[in-house]
Amino acid sequence: MARIIGIGETVYTITLRNNVPQSGAPGGEIFETLLHLGEQGADAALISEVGDDRLGKKILEYMQQRGVKTEGMCVFYEGSTALCISHREEDGSEYKDFYRLYPPAGRLDVVWPRIDPNDFILFGGKYTLEPTVSPVVNEIVDYAVERKAIIVYDAGLQRLGQGENVMLMPQIIDCYEKADIVVMEDSDALQLYKTDDPDRIFRDHIDFYAPVFVMIHNSGSVSYRAAGLACDLESKGRPHAEIVARLLAGFNKVGVPKEGLAAALKNLSTTLL
User: Of the residues 57, 63, 76, 250, which has the fewest C-beta atoms closer than 10 A?
Assistant: First the structure.
């Protein structure tokens, strides 16, 4: 079984409904995808960072209890574990405020994991594009490319500020160039390309770089695109992280080589959801 290694931000999310706290749990899209995989018994590990505080220690315990290896977690002493306050309103809308106090240097100062051919490297989010984080992420991903790992880029851009789509585009294209699989939500696509048409985006922006493209629609469907394949399936209410986890687990189960992803997706597409 191949190893699945994620790189992404770890935050603790407190959910408020009508300004009243309802729940709290560690999260982050890459984090949550690794949790799904760890709970299924996959060889899953996360490269991320938490503070040397009570919250950070609880998050590490939470990961270990759910089968996710924590050797790649950076525990920093200057700063604190990132917080997200999720405001959910009666009309179903959701707004998020983030509170981050990261150290100014030494980000992701971790021992790199062993990476073998056809292992999976999953990375993404605005976090991995930050100037103090992206150099380390790029080094790890470039090394994984050299090792012939399968690279999965999950955009996870959340809400971009004015002009950020233009500013971040060179870095995003660099991520495409490294990737074998590109995943994004329709909200990411609208921010970047002002369209959520998966055929147009795959043809005009992804196909030149990566052989497999997955778009997750907030309306409740998932589009899979590859050479000779255009498949749209109902998501059955599954969240983003679970959809990505099922895709990687499916590829991992059949032992797909890096060069055979597009062909394998044709066989897997009817069973993914």
Answer: 57
